[in-house]
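example protein:
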Amino acid sequence: MRVKDGEQPAMEEGVPADAVGRRIACDGEIATVLFVGMVPPTKGLWLGVEWDNPERGKHDGCHEGVRYFTCSHPTGGSFVRPKKASFGVDYVTALKLRYEREREGTEPVIKGIAVDYRYQKLSNKQKAENLREVALRRCEVWGATPGDDIKNTTPDVEFLDLSHNLLWSWEPLAAITEQLPELTGLHLGYNRLSVPSDPSSLRHAFANLKVLILQGCGLTWPQVLQCAGMWPQVEELYLERNNITQLQRPVDVLQSLTTLDLTNNPIASETLPEISALSGLKTLVLADTGLSTIEFNDVPAGSKTAMFPALQNLALRDNNITEWRVLNELEKLASLEHLMVQRNPLIESGERNPETAWQITIARIGQLHTLNSRQIDPVERRGAERDYLKMFGKQWLESGGHWDPEKNNPGAAFLAEHPRYLALIQKHGAPDEGELVTKKPFALKNQLLNLTFTCPDDTDRKPIPKKLPCSMELQKVKGLLHRLLKLPGVDLHLSYTGTRMEGAEVEMDNDLKELQFYSIEDGDSILVRWS
């Protein structure tokens, strides 16, 4: 409820008249009031609340066979006495408690909770009026009192952190933000904001907002779309840890978005195309959403989709991706340059080691500049793509491929599985017959060599012990060394030596040969030089 031209609602035993739906703090926890009244046979007033942390509660609102309220979690509810609950403080009061105590050198505390602040701090010569960033995290802010106190106190605020507070509706929030004309960034994480009956009436209060963080607010996607009309200029929207499952197409809202973070929401993968028409979206974070498939069915394999036309950065880490065809679908994205796929079964496990999975990913998505936050240098890309040609060369031949371009006609099934293969042949040439890989049962533990990498021309670098399969190609070894030594974009020159060789070195000059080709033995040292 937005307060207008008057004091806060009348109180009974310290309880506001509009208490149902309001948020309270109690013993360091936050809850929503769902009931105010008597609970026989006890005397006096009780608040029936649902805790944000369901482990704090005891029941679902049913007590002694009588239902007083209903919780979304079977143990989310409790009854508390009003004297134990705090309905919070207004913005200006919280500001004074937080910043004035800080300037005095004492830690600001409200109702026994130490205030967590991360932004500007006031020196003895500074005033709140000069602040451009205000952090009132965990300050029990409920809204604003009537008047222009906020505008007069912090007129220049550009970023405001109100996360973990007692805001329960967009109306009291608007009473704060409408007095902050310079506000472009707002953090509202872990509040519970009900959808207003007329969102358009509050549009003026968020008209200049560019960055909005709604982490852990219990929102569904339809609720986001209902509220989105209030944020006409928002460019970055962070929705981590909400209740977003089914995505629907944004109509006339969110069209200014460049960044959307949907981390830790159980999203149905088939609904992902619904947001693909956000033509300005450059960054999409879908980490830990349970995704296993992604499909852009408007074009066949090997073509570029019209979906997500501006998308450059895509985060798919911590999902359930198990099939390479998902990466083939990502190759359809016209603008994709940066991809994060850590901790997916496809990358972290299976019959191929992580280094091989890394190379296959690079080869399947031709326009990537970084993978898992690591730069892909031209040398590494060339090696990965050549190795990919060799790895699947036998399948290419068996499907109808041929070294003679006029006879090179692999089948549709092969091209659907390897849509870049023909383009890679044009780029690097077809693999020689002697380079084609015959798939063997993977028995890594029986093929490991204990090796030590040393850098004789850089004595400050410590030797690096590694266990590597003797079947590992030299190109993959170099890719590993680029990352271990943090030497992207340089040419590595390898040789090896051992105790049996009396100081002699054997040059390793063919990137397509396996370690075992050079007769390396367990305990040998590989010497690493670069230019």
User: Anything to note?
Assistant: The radius of gyration is 30 Å. The chain has four domains: 11-84, 94-373, 379-435, 444-530.
